[in-house]
Amino acid sequence: MSYWHIQKLAHSKNYKYVFLDLDDTIWDFHANARLAMKDMFDNRGLIRYFENFDQFFDIYAKRNIELWELYGKGEITKEYLSIERFRYPLSKMGVNDEELAEQIGQQYLDNLPTQTALMPHAIELLDYLTEKKYPLTIISNGFVEVQYRKMRSSNIEHYFNHIVLSEAAGALKPDKRIFEYALELNGAKPSEAIMIGDSYAADIVGAINAGIDQVYYPLHYPENDEKPECTYMIGTLKEVIAIL
Ligand SMILES: [Mg+2]
Hints:
The protein contains eleven helices and six strands. The protein starts with a helix and ends with a helix. By secondary structure, the chain is of the alpha/beta class. Bound molecules: magnesium ion.
């Protein structure tokens, strides 16, 4: 089946409900995490252990991705993840201080949700979807106390009819149960919903598992333009306006 044909089929559908991931889909997690980490790094004087901020951040970021994958598979707890991602860069520099790791981890988590950077065209898209009367639902694997603060800081909470977080739904994306929970809250059938997200493994595979069409918004748009299995792939949120 050609790409064009898939697009045409999808276009013939009548979507009524829009599901959105939060981090790196609407709220610019990458930019905000870096800003929050820099604030914490300066405030705690971590420069005494590292050559510079970038060195610390690179070690942290790589470990953080691995840990989130393990958390997604249910292999580690949220508590372990929160401390380990800071214990690891410190230990790499010969500093074995679990208490410090816990403190800076907490300071980072406190600061992060106060940051307000959104993805380009996020507000434009949310305004458009609201004007078109699509009920909007956030579906996120992030922590409850953190996700709500992010949405309040960046003043976007009012756009959403429902906010479905994995801790409350009892399942993590890509488990189809979190999507089914969102469908039930909206009184929607899978064919009436569309999911927009940046994570192929969580958002796109999850929506496919639940029989929901998907808009893949990868953080790095593939240079060869090769489209993985998904209903749509976009390079900017503006393109959603052409779909809905
Ligand atoms: Mg995301």
